[in-house]
């Protein structure tokens, strides 16, 4: 059996080594193309593993650039992007490889298993969506577009990170931090000129702390304005990206980028996506307006965007007698991680064993995962916020379960990255319950990738899963962060060991759908803006005008004119969610339906949970999620379960 990959990245020699590997790859491709009788085994499999090896080489650099960002990682990553993009584009447009795949699909149709057929199907589709069958002039232009798009996306992300790190607000008056949780005050506190001061930044733990608990409305407004007006230079990047996406889509025979995007997704048409989103909008509007009336009553003045988190916390305490800060001592980070692992062991019969190794940061660590006492995968955790790490939370795969051309098994690895409050020798990392939900969400992605039994790497784990289904396993798992039996496995006071009481758990569960309809409208705003933005070419003020028109239906409080949310919308301009942000809600239908099937069977005694492991987690992307879901549930998804999950009455 293969050993796991070793995490390493030689920044000094990366570009030289990358070029050497690509030269070797190109030579190997030429050699494979000269084979007279090409088969899946002698042609496609070696090609597939060659690309897997390239991913193994490149992933540590992209990972470091996200979690230990520095001038050096930025420089090397920026140099590497056009090189790898040019190579990938040439491969995806190579007509000879495309012809070979078509030939193998025809000649070996009856001999291949369903995993191999899926690989061929997705590759042929990928080639056609890359323009492999088009003329040389068009292919050259598509290559230029791909290189430029990757540069722009990287610049967008870097601009957001730089703007986030560049801003800080210093508070000198102790009264302005009155009411903030002790742990947040401690994190913000510093000494200067013999005086105690407090620094708040746009890093998520710091920003959320003041927006939620900070009494000084003027400071909240300043922080909010800084946050929603970050990276104004990204407006020009957005225009260029949108123009390139539209041009690329038309060259490939689509009316717009939304149509192009749906070619690889579960959703059948652009009309169906908009119909789906607007249906949720219609069903949520009335309850959202009622929620806003309740929220307004808790404020002595007309609510503005920078007030909502603060007065939501006040209303939440009043309605549910729930104080987030009272819960944080029960959600010490290490205890939560360990408890989550115990829960997964009980639900899916898997085991986590710590693995010692030197990693990219002292706060990062690794575990081996066993299933039925067999070593299955490795998972890395890097969970605390720092200046060198980009914001948000994500799972990134680092190798998929598969068999190589020699029949040797390769084991999967993945990173779980979050931005939780930093710990120190004197200050533990105490999480909000939202952080716990985030951890469960990313772990859902992680085990989806790591527990795969698929032997073809391109459809193993999260690989090959439709984009609007890939959030299904993450959302499915995050729902358990509210289950009382699960909470009691890790919600223990970090000083006394006392388990979170039934009364506090009951409050937390009842408060789960607090202002849920308002939250639904916010997500629908993002989804509709993203999708409609890609149905035709919008430029300059048209982008803002579109967002404003959508906000008339979704934003119950009018956003100030300085709110340029789109300039920080990394999901669609620096991530993979362009014309796909709706996927969160699309997948949530699947996750809510499967979740309630497990809960209604008693969670730990659930046969559906084990079926979920054996069908969804083991199945990876080797079949369409539509097919896997029907195999799991015996029917199509029930959309009403999504409204039930969100406590929205229709």
What can be said about this structure in brief?
The protein is α+β, with helices and mostly antiparallel strands. The protein is about 55% helix and about 10% strand. It has helices at about 15-35, 40-65, 70-90, 95-105, 115-130, 135-165, 180-190, 205-215, 215-230, 235-250, 255-260, 270-295, 310-320, 325, 335-350, 435-450, 470-480, 485, 500-510, 515-535, 540-555, 570-575, 585-600, 605-620, 625-635, 640-645, and strands at about 170, 190, 195-200, 350-355, 365-370, 375-385, 395, 400-405, 410, 410-420.
Walkthrough of the structure:
With 650 residues, this protein is of the alpha+beta class. Helix content is 56%, strand content 9%. The protein has helices at residues 14-33, 40-67, 71-92, 95-107, 114-129, 136-166, 182-188, 204-213, 217-228, 234-251, 257-262, 270-297, 308-320, 324-327, 333-348, 433-450, 472-478, 484-487, 502-510, 516-533, 541-554, 570-573, 583-599, 607-619, 625-633, 640-645, and strands at 168-171, 189-192, 195-201, 350-355, 365-371, 374-384, 394-397, 402-403, 409-410, 412-420. The strands form three sheets. A five-stranded mixed sheet has the order 4-5-6-10-7, sandwiched between helices. A three-stranded antiparallel sheet has the order 1-3-2. Helix 3 (71-92) runs antiparallel to helix 6 (136-166). The chain is globular, with a radius of gyration of 25 Å. The N and C termini lie far apart (54 Å).
């Amino acid at each position: 059996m293969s050993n796991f990959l070793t995490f390493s990245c030689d920044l000094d020699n990366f570009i030289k080594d990358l070029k050497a590997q690509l030269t070797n790859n190109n030579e190997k491709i030429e050699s494979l193309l000269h084979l007279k009788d090409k088969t899946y085994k002698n042609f496609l499999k070696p090609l597939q593993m060659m690309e897997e090896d390239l991913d193994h080489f490149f992933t540590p650099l992209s990972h470091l650039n996200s979690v230990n960002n520095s001038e050096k990682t930025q420089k090397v990553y920026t140099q590497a992007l056009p090189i790898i993009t040019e190579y990938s584009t040439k491969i995806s447009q190579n007509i000879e490889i495309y012809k070979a795949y078509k030939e193998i699909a025809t000649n070996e149709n009856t001999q291949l298993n369903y995993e191999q057929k899926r690989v061929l199907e997705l590759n042929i589709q990928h080639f056609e969506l890359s323009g492999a069958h088009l003329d040389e002039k068009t292919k050259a232009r598509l290559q230029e577009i791909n290189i430029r798009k990757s540069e722009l996306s990287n610049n967008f992300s870097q601009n957001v990170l730089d703007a986030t790190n560049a801003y800080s607000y210093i508070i000198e008056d102790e009264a302005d931090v009155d009411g903030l949780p002790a742990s947040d005050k401690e994190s913000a506190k510093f000494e200067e000129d013999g005086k105690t001061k407090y620094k708040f930044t746009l890093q998520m733990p710091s920003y959320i702390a003041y927006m939620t608990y900070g009494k000084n409305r003027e400071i909240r407004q300043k922080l909010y304005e800084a946050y929603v007006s970050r990276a104004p230079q990204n407006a020009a990047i957005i225009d260029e990206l949108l123009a390139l996406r539209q041009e690329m889509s038309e060259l490939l025979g689509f009316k717009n980028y939304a149509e192009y995007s749906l070619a690889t997704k579960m959703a059948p048409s652009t009309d169906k996506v908009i119909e789906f989103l607007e249906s949720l909008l219609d069903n949520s509007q009335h309850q959202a307006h009622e929620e806003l009336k309740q929220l307004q009553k808790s404020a002595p003045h007309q609510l503005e965007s920078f007030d909502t988190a603060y007065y939501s916390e006040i209303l939440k305490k009043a309605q549910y007698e729930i104080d987030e800060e009272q819960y944080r001592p029960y959600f010490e980070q290490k205890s939560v991680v360990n408890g989550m692992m115990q829960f997964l062991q009980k639900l899916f019969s898997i085991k986590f064993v710590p693995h010692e190794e030197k990693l990219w940061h002292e706060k990062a660590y690794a575990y081996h995962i066993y299933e039925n006492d067999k070593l299955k995968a490795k998972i890395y955790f890097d969970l605390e916020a720092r200046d060198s790490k980009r914001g948000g939370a994500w799972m990134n795969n680092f190798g998929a379960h598969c068999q190589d051309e020699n029949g040797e098994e390769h084991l999967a690895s993945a990173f779980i990255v979050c931005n939780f409050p930093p710990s120190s020798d004197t200050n533990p990392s105490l999480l909000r319950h939202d952080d716990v939900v985030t951890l469960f969400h990313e772990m859902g992605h992680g085990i989806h990738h790591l527990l795969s039994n698929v032997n073809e790497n391109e459809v193993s784990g999260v690989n090959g899963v439709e984009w609007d289904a890939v959030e299904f396993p993450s959302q499915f798992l995050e729902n358990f962060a509210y289950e009382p039996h699960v909470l009691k496995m890790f919600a223990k006071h970090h000083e006394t060991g006392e388990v979170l009481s039934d009364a506090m758990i009951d409050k937390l569960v009842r408060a789960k759908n607090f202002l849920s309809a308002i939250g639904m409208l916010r997500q629908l705003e993002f989804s509709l803006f993203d999708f409609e933005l890609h149905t035709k070419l919008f430029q300059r003020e048209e982008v803002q005008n579109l967002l404003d028109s959508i906000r008339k239906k979704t934003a119950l409080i009018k956003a100030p004119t300085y709110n340029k949310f789109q300039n920080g919308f990394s999901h669609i301009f620096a991530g993979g969610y362009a014309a796909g942000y709706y996927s969160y809600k699309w997948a949530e239908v699947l996750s809510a339906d499967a979740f309630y099937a497990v809960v209604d069977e008693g969670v730990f005694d659930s046969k559906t949970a084990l079926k979920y492991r054996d069908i969804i987690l083991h199945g990876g992307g080797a079949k369409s999620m539509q097919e896997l879901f029907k195999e799991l549930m015996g029917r199509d998804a029930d959309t009403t379960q999504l409204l039930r999950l969100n406590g929205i009455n229709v």
